[in-house]
Every structure is written in C-alpha cells, then in structure tokens.
Amino acid sequence: xxxxxxxxxxxxxxxxxxxxxxxxxxPSPTDLLATVGAHTVSIALLDGPDASxxxxxxxxxxxxxxxxxxxxxxxxxxxxxxxxxxxxxxxAGSLRLQDRMATHLTKEEMDAMGxxxxxxxxxIEQLLSHTSGLSTSGFDGYDASAEIPTLxxxxxxxxxxxxxxxxxxxVPGRRWRYSGGGYTVLQLxxxxxxxxxxxxxxxxxxxxxxxxxxSFFGVRDATERNFAKAMWNxxxxxxxxxxxxxxxxxxxxxxxxxxxxxxxxxxxxxVGDRDRHASGSESNVPFLTAETTRKxxxxxxxxxxxxxxxxxxESPDWKKFSHSxxxxxxxxxxxxxxxxxxxxxxxxxxxxxxxxxxxxPRFKGIAIMTNSNVGFSTVVSKLVDAISHLLSWPCExxxxxxxxxxxxxxxxxxxxxxxxxxWTDDWVVRDDGTVLxxxxxxxxxxxxxxxxxxxxxxxxxxGLEIVRETRTFVLWPLExxxxxxxxxEGERIVVLYSDGGSSTLTRVKT
Length: 510
Description:
By secondary structure, the chain is α+β, with helices and mostly antiparallel strands. Helix content is about 25%, strand content about 20%.
C-alpha cells in the first residue's frame, strides 16, 4: 500500500476500534484520539529521497483550520536538529568532536556548573551522545509572564531558573545518562563559535538550508495563528505554551513535515557519496558527508549515537534512527529508516547507485506531533505501530500493551488451537467458540483481538529453514497485549506486555 492511501486506511482503522458498551455510538477518529488523550495529532510520512515531493501528511483535529502547516513544540526533537548544526561546524573546522567543552566556555560558565576538575574532561562528542556525566535530563519551561533566566542562570540553578544546577554526576564517558543540561552547554558553544545567537545560527546552519520554512528556535511570535495550543489531554488547555530558554534541548517549533526534511537530509547524506561515486560526479554535495553521518548514527552507548537513538528493527534489513520529545503540553516522535549497509564505508569496488523500492528501508520516515501532555503512550506509539502495520514497515515502538486493534485482519481462533491451555503466572488461553480469550487465575475471560502492529518473523531452529510469524493480540479493553511466538529452542511461548514492560509465559506442564 502506498503512503497516498495510508491515511484513508488509518482513518478506517481508528473508526473501527471496538466500542465500549457504555459508548452509544462509535466515535470519529478525531474524537477517539481526543478521548484517549490528544486534542490534535499531526502526522507526516516520508517515502522517497526528496522530502519536498515525497512527504504526505494528515491532521486529526477538531480545529478545522489546522493543516500540515500547523506548528507544535518539537520538545526534545530539538536535540538531533541541534546535533546537525554542531556536526556542520565540525565539518567546517570550527569545532572538533574531541574538543573539551572547557575550551569554548568562559570561567563563569564553568564555575556555574561547579567548576569540578572532571568538567575539564567533558568533550563535544560526549555532550552529543549523553555520555558527558552531566545532570538534568529535562526542563519544565517558563510561563510567558515569568522572568526568563539566562543560560548561565540555568547552568547554575540560580533564580529565576526553575531547575537545579547542571553538574557532573558521573565520570565523563563512563556510561549513558540522558542530559538536557549537556545540550544547554552545546547551545552556549554554538553561540561562542559562530558569534551568533543560537536561533540565528540554527536558522543559517540547518533550518534555511533544509527548507524548513515553518520552523524556528525561540518564542512563538504573537502574530502566529496557525499553532496548536498546549493541552493537558484531549480536552483541557494548559495555562499556555511554555518558554524554553534551553533552546538546543527543547526550544524548536516545527511541523512533522519539516522534521522529515531533517530525516531526509540524514538519509541522503548517508548514501550521498555512493551516488556521486557511481555517477563519477562531485556535484550535489550532501548536507553532511557520509563519513560524518555514519558517525552520527553509530551507537556509542545505550543505542545512542550523536543526537539520535540508532538501533535495529523487527527486520535485519532495516535500521532506524529516532527521537521522541516531551514538553508540558506537547509530545512527539520522529523516526527514519536506513539499510544496515549504509553504515558501512564505501569501497571503490562496491559502489552502486542507491535506489528506493517498496521493500527498501531507504528514504522512509514517520513524524507525529501532538499538543498533549500525555500524547506519547496513549496516542503516538499506537499510531507509529499501526502505520507500520498498514505499510508493512518493520517498525515498532517499545511494546507496552497499548496497541490499537486492527479491524481488517480477522484471525480465526481455530488457527491458534495450539496456543490454548495453561501458561505460567496463572494465565489460561482458551477458545470461547468465536474468539480466543485469556483469563488470569480463572477470572473474567478477556477477548484477544488482533493488534495493529508489525509482526516479527521467527527463524527456524537447529538449521531448519522454517520461518514463522508471530501474532500479537490486545487484551481488550485493557492496556495489555500478548504476543504468540517461539523461543530459541522452537518452543511456543507467550510474551505478555503490560505497563511498559514485558514478561515471558511458558507452557504449564500437565
């Protein structure tokens, strides 16, 4: 299925969700999304090498004037965009990844973080990869009427800052620790190196070159009307969108379509030298060199590279780079796909022009933004999984049991008779005559409805060339799911997803 028909199918899927007995009529897709936590949901899909022509979008919102140009706070998706600017400065020779941050900061700025000896060891690469050992994972922002702190105030945790001092909590480089504080330091360094305000530097280095015309770092202009108001949930507004002086960590306003221009730039840069090598031309120089982009997407610790999470998918032929974001009143997610081969250096004997096909991961991506304080787990992750299911893309967010049900895949319970019976932790799966059901400790029978997620292929055991596909079910209407699969020995198991975690159930021996 093409992305052009995706949104029709997605609307059908949303409209076909099981109706709770207390609900007299099935809600519209927009009403359903609001009920589960998101007032407005903006989605963009990339399926091709040119983001300006290969991006499609759709907005679910009760506000009729909202469209693909409606802006949202990007929250922590600001970080990988900042990373692009830093890497462009590295390629320009203005910075080196192994530069120590102290080289580019004043004594006042270093003292604001405590002036510890270990601070002298923190490098640019460690700041980008969240391995600096610095504190402060995120920031709450400020009301429009509040006094806004300077960046030195933020680093020092001094009034009027509403966060504590950014300081060293671990040995630099020893382990991964998410740090918005580290990206605030990068903000100062970008300003110092460029001699510009951070917003102006980002406009010149990233936003303008990528054609991100609906994006900016900083405070939303009072004349801007096409923006999504910050909401607590699907119906209640917050006191207003918050101001984030920590621009590099959380200060970007943008649209999903604009964010996919960032994804596209990374994808094209990654394969750009292959295209030029194959054609013998050095024209069309990419946004970054392939060497720098490979480094950006190569994990250092905890599947995190320089600004992006970078990890595998349910298919060995697809990899993804991604980032989520959460500010008060906004949450979102973006992911792009690449081939594992794209992370390998090009050799003159293997150069070939890169193409994109329906089965290829290259030049594909998803971006979703909501104006909701609870939008990720209740809406965004479900939609990413459902879109991947509809497009047969092997992408899945961390399974936590909060899946949508797919109305267009009816699974006859007879197909799964081998899964009925007793399982560990007092679970039973049985056929009630129409659908499979599950029960815990002989309690209420819970219908197992097919989930709108991408299923995994399980290889054969001990050299047997058998490929079997898992099946995932929602324990409706709970926020739990079961995946029927096999372990390495080829034995049937059930993976139970609940509350952000999972456990493995094995057959009870009788």
